[in-house]
Amino acid sequence: QVHLVESGGGLVQAGGSLELSCTASGSISSINAGAWYHQAPGKKRELVAIMRSSGNTEYPDSVKGRFTISRDNAKGMMYLQMKSLKPEDTGVYYCNAFRVGDDGLVKADYWGTGTQVTVSS
Protein backbone atom coordinates (compact mmCIF):
# COMPACT_ATOMS: atom_id res chain seq x y z
CA GLN A 1 0.00 0.00 0.00
CA VAL A 2 1.15 3.54 -0.74
CA HIS A 3 -0.02 6.69 1.01
CA LEU A 4 0.23 10.01 -0.82
CA VAL A 5 0.04 13.51 0.65
CA GLU A 6 0.07 16.66 -1.46
CA SER A 7 1.31 20.02 -0.23
CA GLY A 8 2.29 23.42 -1.56
CA GLY A 9 -1.06 24.70 -2.68
CA GLY A 10 -2.24 28.19 -1.90
CA LEU A 11 -3.30 31.53 -3.26
CA VAL A 12 -1.23 33.14 -5.99
CA GLN A 13 -1.73 36.00 -8.41
CA ALA A 14 -2.04 35.36 -12.11
CA GLY A 15 1.40 35.08 -13.65
CA GLY A 16 2.86 33.71 -10.46
CA SER A 17 4.41 30.36 -9.66
CA LEU A 18 3.85 27.50 -7.24
CA GLU A 19 5.50 24.17 -6.64
CA LEU A 20 3.36 21.30 -5.45
CA SER A 21 4.88 18.36 -3.64
CA CYS A 22 3.64 14.83 -3.24
CA THR A 23 5.08 12.79 -0.42
CA ALA A 24 4.78 9.03 -0.75
CA SER A 25 5.08 6.54 2.07
CA GLY A 26 4.63 2.82 2.34
CA SER A 27 5.61 0.42 -0.42
CA ILE A 28 7.02 3.16 -2.64
CA SER A 29 9.44 0.79 -4.35
CA SER A 30 6.41 -0.66 -6.13
CA ILE A 31 5.74 2.66 -7.87
CA ASN A 32 7.30 3.39 -11.26
CA ALA A 33 5.14 6.17 -12.68
CA GLY A 34 3.22 9.20 -11.51
CA ALA A 35 0.94 11.98 -12.57
CA TRP A 36 -0.77 15.15 -11.45
CA TYR A 37 -4.42 15.92 -12.07
CA HIS A 38 -6.39 19.14 -11.81
CA GLN A 39 -10.04 19.43 -10.91
CA ALA A 40 -11.55 22.84 -11.47
CA PRO A 41 -14.72 23.77 -9.57
CA GLY A 42 -17.69 21.94 -11.05
CA LYS A 43 -15.59 20.08 -13.59
CA LYS A 44 -14.14 16.62 -13.93
CA ARG A 45 -10.61 15.75 -12.95
CA GLU A 46 -8.12 16.22 -15.79
CA LEU A 47 -4.55 15.11 -16.33
CA VAL A 48 -2.00 17.95 -16.32
CA ALA A 49 1.27 16.04 -16.18
CA ILE A 50 2.46 12.46 -16.34
CA MET A 51 5.84 10.85 -15.89
CA ARG A 52 5.86 7.36 -17.35
CA SER A 53 7.90 4.41 -16.13
CA SER A 54 10.41 5.24 -18.87
CA GLY A 55 10.90 8.69 -17.37
CA ASN A 56 9.24 10.36 -20.33
CA THR A 57 6.89 13.20 -19.49
CA GLU A 58 3.77 14.42 -21.22
CA TYR A 59 1.55 17.44 -20.78
CA PRO A 60 -1.69 18.63 -22.33
CA ASP A 61 -1.44 21.72 -24.49
CA SER A 62 -3.16 23.80 -21.80
CA VAL A 63 -0.13 23.57 -19.49
CA LYS A 64 2.73 22.68 -21.84
CA GLY A 65 5.65 24.98 -21.24
CA ARG A 66 4.22 26.15 -17.93
CA PHE A 67 4.08 22.98 -15.80
CA THR A 68 6.92 20.56 -15.10
CA ILE A 69 6.63 17.22 -13.35
CA SER A 70 9.61 15.71 -11.60
CA ARG A 71 10.36 13.10 -8.97
CA ASP A 72 12.98 12.14 -6.45
CA ASN A 73 12.73 8.39 -6.01
CA ALA A 74 15.22 8.34 -3.16
CA LYS A 75 13.03 10.70 -1.15
CA GLY A 76 9.72 9.26 -2.29
CA MET A 77 8.72 12.66 -3.65
CA MET A 78 7.02 13.92 -6.78
CA TYR A 79 6.74 17.57 -7.72
CA LEU A 80 4.73 19.81 -10.00
CA GLN A 81 6.39 23.11 -10.82
CA MET A 82 3.78 25.56 -12.09
CA LYS A 83 4.60 28.94 -13.59
CA SER A 84 2.73 31.64 -15.47
CA LEU A 85 -0.36 30.58 -13.60
CA LYS A 86 -3.77 31.56 -14.93
CA PRO A 87 -7.13 31.91 -13.15
CA GLU A 88 -8.30 28.80 -15.02
CA ASP A 89 -5.58 26.82 -13.22
CA THR A 90 -7.60 27.25 -10.04
CA GLY A 91 -8.80 24.04 -8.49
CA VAL A 92 -7.70 21.01 -6.54
CA TYR A 93 -4.54 19.25 -7.64
CA TYR A 94 -4.20 15.54 -7.03
CA CYS A 95 -1.11 13.38 -6.96
CA ASN A 96 -1.40 9.96 -8.60
CA ALA A 97 1.23 7.26 -8.28
CA PHE A 98 0.98 3.93 -10.02
CA ARG A 99 2.85 0.87 -11.11
CA VAL A 100 2.95 -0.18 -14.71
CA GLY A 101 3.68 -3.83 -15.39
CA ASP A 102 5.84 -5.25 -18.15
CA ASP A 103 2.66 -5.72 -20.15
CA GLY A 104 2.00 -1.98 -20.03
CA LEU A 105 -1.04 -2.34 -17.80
CA VAL A 106 -1.52 -0.46 -14.54
CA LYS A 107 -1.10 -2.91 -11.69
CA ALA A 108 -1.57 -0.57 -8.73
CA ASP A 109 -3.00 2.93 -8.50
CA TYR A 110 -2.84 5.37 -5.60
CA TRP A 111 -4.23 8.87 -5.04
CA GLY A 112 -3.69 11.69 -2.63
CA THR A 113 -6.50 13.80 -1.21
CA GLY A 114 -5.53 16.93 -3.10
CA THR A 115 -4.26 20.42 -2.47
CA GLN A 116 -6.11 23.61 -3.36
CA VAL A 117 -4.60 26.11 -5.75
CA THR A 118 -6.31 29.45 -6.26
CA VAL A 119 -5.08 31.85 -8.91
CA SER A 120 -6.46 35.36 -8.62
CA SER A 121 -6.80 37.65 -11.60
Question: Secondary-structure map with pairings?
Answer:
Elements: E1 2-7, E2 10-13, E3 18-26, E4 33-39, E5 46-51, E6 57-58, E7 67-72, E8 77-82, E9 91-100, E10 106-111, E11 115-120
Parallel strand pairs: 2-11
Antiparallel strand pairs: 1-3, 3-8, 4-5, 4-9, 5-6, 7-8, 9-10, 9-11
Q: How is this structure best described in words?
A:
The protein is mainly beta and about 120 residues long. The chain has no helices and eleven strands. The chain has strands spanning about 1-5, 10-15, 20-25, 35-40, 45-50, 55-60, 65-70, 75-80, 90-100, 105-110, 115-120. Strand 9 and strand 10 form a beta hairpin. The N and C termini lie far apart (about 40 Å). The model has no long low-confidence stretch (mean pLDDT about 95).
Order of helices and strands: EEEEEEEEEEE
Q: How much helicity do the residues have?
A: under 10%
Figure out the total of helices.
0
Contiguous uncertain segments of 5+ residues: none
Q: Between the first and last Cα atoms, what is the distance in angstroms?
A: 40 Å
User: How many strand units?
Assistant: 11
Largest sheet: 7 strands, mixed
Mean pLDDT: 95
Cα-atom radius of gyration: 14 Å
Strand proportion: over 45%
Categorize the overall geometry: globular
Estimated structural class? mainly beta
Task: State the gist of this model.
With 121 residues, the chain is an all-beta fold. The chain contains no helices and 11 strands.
